[in-house]
Amino acid sequence: xxxxxxxxxxxxxxxxxxxIVGRRKTFYLISVLLMLLSLxxxxxxxxxxxxxxxxxxxxxxxxxxxITDYEQRARPIVEETxxxxxxxxxxxxxxxxxxQTGEMEESQAEELRxxxxxxFDVPVESVASSLVGPSWGETVTQRALLALVVFLVLVxxxxxLYFHTWKMAGAALVALVHDVLFTLGIYALLGIEVxxxxxxxxxxxxxxxxxxxxxxxxxxxxNTEHALDTKRTTYGEAANVAVNQTLVRSIxxxxxxxxxxxxxxxxxxxxxxxxxxxxxxxxxxxxxAVGTYSSIFIATPLLVQLREGxxxxxxxxxxxxxxxxxxxxxxxxxxxxELDELQGEPVDAEETSGEAVPAGGVAVPSGAQQATxxxxxxxxxxxxxxxGPRNQPRRKRRG
Length: 399
What we know:
Elements: H1 3-13, H2 24-45, E1 48-49, H3 51-54, E2 56-61, H4 70-81, E3 88-92, E4 96-101, H5 106-119, E5 127-132, H6 134-163, H7 166-190, E6 193-194, H8 196-230, H9 235-272, H10 276-307, H11 311-343, H12 366-371
Parallel strand pairs: 1-6
Antiparallel strand pairs: 2-4, 2-5, 3-4
């Protein structure tokens, strides 16, 4: 058995455990710091929306033989033709240059096509231009927000009916908001372009995050129901055991999901270049990672905190605590009694009717003291000393 498998078995059996619920304030603090960092990125630097959302013109120069220094060669041409516009120049694959800039007239687009064809030594037909209006991006945004609202409403209803409490649904929704906000903050801080593919990725990570949270919550419900019946552990302790039992499973699931996304992301950045695949991979990679964290360290501790205020849970925890105190007191009293029985009580010499009592508490008759040959000074002979005639000095033989 591997070390990681043994570690998972120890967590599931309870031989090893992390106090995740008990240290929830620490994880709350970490999440608050991450949220503040995300908000600083969102309101400070802002999101880098793609051309589909802000509108503009995109030109692609294909079949370029010499693509070295493509940005330094293309940017002066754009700035001279349409000055004052924000321009993004990227490489796609091994032989394509993509130029995204603001809206322009048809004559300006045709002029740029001719200039790019001359600069990169390709036919004019290899330079394609397309005009993207901002209305398309606004439509995508509105539909995405509508899908998000419908998703959250359905998740709330399903979780409330499945777990028979709205507090589990509330904790799961907080974890979802945490995941989306953190992902958007990373996009803003790193300057990753937000495209329609990114929006699809945001909606996808919501589904993954809620799936992982439901797996953990299902084990929490099983453990806490058993705890409420047996009255042996508190609600928080039972929930913490559930989190530890599902910890390795959540990590394994996340790693399996992250590995192919990571491969797509690396290949897309190094070989393919910016595009739909990379935009989707960025959202999935960040969302899956933070979704695993929130399911373990945010959703379950928050659920425990919400339910610990219920009257039933408070009574249950008080009963468990009282039973433990009584059991500890009985164990302490039993240990004291057994110790007294093993050691025995010291016996007074006056109550033994002339019997001498040593420090150990065992009475020795006075006659036994004389039999052992104790002198007036109370000295005792060595236990292995010879007694009787053998202990007398030998007589010398006469001539």
